[in-house]
């Protein structure tokens, strides 16, 4: 990496207890996969209760080669795996967050039960309670969660080591390639990272996706499941950003209800 070792400090005086420590643990956990050929991750230089110091990155114009390398690297990161679905990063026990919203990381034996109960339903309830989502829409998503919890969408893939909040703002293209920042890392399903990139866009997305598909040896028909893996980020945004995300959330759920 051609970035200098100067620091970028993120601070938040009212950060919840463990907020930055959890971020640091996630970055270091993902960095273990980087050492085995996985996606590049911003180095953690220091962390404290109200701050985290990261190596400063110098953004550059994305290239096709960097997009393809990101796809391959992401597949390798996922393949390094996790102890269980919902497992937190190694070295961290306690609360987790996506952005500024809390979420749990409790190990689960199956992906569907974890995804329904810890990733989708809690945010649907928040969106409903805040008036951002109508009850009829929430019921449609709940029906999908019932199917998830019953194992209807479980497959034979083991728990993946995922970034967990992989929208384009958390991918920084530098002169030497893409670097991941700001994870909500946990054991999950690899398609969840790919689906979030597809939802919010990413430079060179088609090349990222093609490289990932080849490296991860995705099964035929995987694209049909992308909206299922977008329920979590859509529910998060419906809870935090308002009713404009309600219709996309319900539309994504309707195909699986």
TrEMBL record:
InterPro entries assigned to the protein according to its UniProt record, in alphabetical order: Fructo-/Ketosamine-3-kinase, Kinase-like_dom_sf
GO molecular function per UniProt: kinase activity
Entry keyword annotation includes Cell cycle: no
TM stretches of this protein: none
UniProt keyword annotations, A-Z: Kinase, Transferase
Domain of life: Bacteria
PANTHER family: FRUCTOSAMINE 3 KINASE-RELATED PROTEIN (PTHR12149), PROTEIN-RIBULOSAMINE 3-KINASE (PTHR12149:SF8)
Protein family per UniProt: Belongs to the fructosamine kinase family.
Annotated protein name in UniProt: Fructosamine kinase family protein
């Amino acid at each position: 990496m051609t970035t200098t070792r100067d620091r970028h400090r993120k601070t938040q005086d009212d950060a919840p207890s463990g907020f930055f420590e959890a971020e640091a643990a996630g970055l270091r956990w993902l960095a273990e996969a980087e050492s085995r050929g996985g996606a590049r991750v911003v180095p953690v230089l220091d962390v404290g209760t109200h701050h985290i110091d990261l190596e400063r990155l110098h953004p550059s114009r994305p290239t096709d080669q960097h997009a393809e390398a990101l796809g391959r690297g992401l597949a390798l990161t996922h393949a390094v795996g996790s102890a269980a679905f919902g497992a937190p990063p190694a070295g961290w026990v306690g609360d987790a967050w996506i952005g500024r919203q809390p979420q749990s990381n409790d190990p689960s034996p199956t992906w569907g039960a974890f995804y329904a109960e810890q990733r989708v339903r809690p945010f649907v309830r928040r969106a409903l309670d805040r008036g951002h989502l109508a009850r009829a829409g929430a019921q449609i998503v709940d029906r999908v969660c019932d199917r998830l919890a019953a194992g209807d969408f479980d497959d034979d893939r083991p728990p993946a080591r995922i970034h967990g909040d992989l929208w384009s703002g958390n991918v920084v293209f530098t002169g030497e390639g893409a670097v991941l920042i700001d994870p909500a890392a946990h054991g999950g399903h690899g398609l969840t990272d790919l689906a979030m990139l597809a939802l919010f866009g990413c430079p060179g997305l088609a090349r990222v996706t093609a490289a990932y598909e080849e490296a991860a040896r995705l099964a035929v028909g995987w694209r049909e499941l992308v909206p299922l893996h977008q329920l979590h980020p859509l529910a998060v945004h419906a809870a935090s950003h308002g009713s404009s995300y309600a219709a996309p959330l319900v539309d994504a759920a309707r195909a699986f209800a």
